[in-house]
């Protein structure tokens, strides 16, 4: 999967995408992530990318022209490289709330362009003409769409085959597709007793069916207590 990120702050991506599982995935060629500066597409001497809003009001609005030309350029590069038009995602608090289903849907595309929104917003003519999906990561306001873009890339990368180690994939598998969308129940590791606290006996029983049933039950209980909204329509079959 190829991901191109369009941002006013390319330097923000240097740390997160070098370290971590995402960094390893990029190194191994499982995902290809490139970061592009919107300012490189400005035309004037000052490389202007924002301006005051029509109608007045506080803050600045990201101009249509640099974003428009940047996306045109990145789309053209993708078409010449792979021949499949990439989906364009804009990170903005006005977007649809990101969930695992949307992440899964996005992984069906070979290439994505993620545009990081900023300031008081983005000229609507760019959004109307160039953006396929507007995405928010939660009901709170951040200073910019860069962190949301990183969140999205992280969520996407871990679904690319081979990115998670065998152990992690196997764990998810054994958890069973039936628990998809539920919160995970409690987990424990050595020592068997810590400050007087012991894990439930069933985890030491060696009975895999019983352990699986315990994991299912604790996942359902916890989801009911903390996120009852997730239980609506579950199980799906
Ligand atoms: Cl995608 N952008 C900004 N600026 N704030 C947010 C957000 C996005 N998602 C939640 N808050």
> Which series of helices and strands comes N to C?
EHHEEEHEHEHEHHHH
Structural class: alpha/beta
Number of domains: 2
**Beta-strand content bin:** 15-25%
CATH class of the largest domain: Alpha Beta
Number of helices: 9
CATH level-two architecture of the largest domain:
3-Layer(aba) Sandwich
Report the span from N to C terminus: 31 Å
The 3D shape can be described as elongated
Radius of gyration: 22 Å
Helix content: 25-40%
Instruction: Give the spatial strand order of the biggest sheet.
Output: 2-1-6-5-7
CATH superfamily of the largest domain: SPOUT methyltransferase, trefoil knot domain
Small molecules bound: 6-chloroguanine
Largest sheet: 5 strands, parallel
Tally of strands: 7
Uncertain stretches: none
| CATH fold naming of the largest domain | Alpha/beta knot
Mean pLDDT: 93
Explain this structure.
This protein has nine helices and seven strands. It has a five-stranded parallel beta sheet. 38% of the residues lie in helices and 16% in strands. The chain has two domains: 2-159, SPOUT methyltransferase, trefoil knot domain (Alpha/beta knot); 169-231, Trp Operon Repressor, Chain A. The model has no long low-confidence stretch (mean pLDDT 93). It has helices at residues 14-18, 20-27, 64-82, 100-106, 124-130, 146-157, 166-175, 208-226, 228-231, and strands at residues 2-7, 32-37, 50-51, 61-62, 87-97, 111-116, 133-136. It has 237 residues and is of the alpha/beta class. Helix 3 packs parallel to helix 5. The site of 6-chloroguanine has 14 residues, from strand 5.
């Amino acid at each position: 999967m190829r991901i191109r990120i369009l941002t006013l702050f390319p330097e923000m991506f240097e740390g997160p995408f070098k370290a971590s599982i995402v960094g390893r995935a990029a190194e191994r060629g499982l995902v290809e992530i490139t970061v592009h500066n919107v300012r490189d597409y400005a035309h004037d001497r000052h490389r202007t990318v924002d301006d005051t809003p029509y109608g007045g009001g506080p803050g600045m609005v990201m101009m249509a022209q640099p974003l428009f030309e940047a996306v045109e350029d990145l789309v053209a590069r993708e078409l010449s490289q792979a021949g499949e038009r990439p989906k364009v995602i804009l990170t903005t608090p006005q977007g649809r709330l990101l969930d695992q289903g949307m992440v899964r849907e996005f992984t069906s595309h070979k290439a994505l362009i993620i545009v990081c929104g900023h300031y008081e917003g983005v000229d609507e003519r760019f959004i109307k003409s160039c953006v396929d999906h507007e995405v928010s990561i939660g009901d709170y306001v951040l200073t910019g769409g860069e962190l949301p873009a990183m969140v999205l890339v992280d969520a996407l990368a871990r679904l690319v085959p081979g990115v998670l180690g065998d152990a992690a994939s196997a764990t998810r598998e054994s958890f069973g597709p039936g628990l998809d969308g539920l919160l995970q129940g409690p987990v424990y590791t050595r020592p068997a007793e810590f400050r007087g606290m012991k894990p439930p006996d069933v985890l030491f029983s060696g009975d895999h069916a019983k352990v699986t049933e315990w994991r299912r039950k604790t996942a359902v209980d916890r989801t009911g207590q903390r996120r009852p909204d997730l239980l609506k329509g579950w199980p799906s079959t």
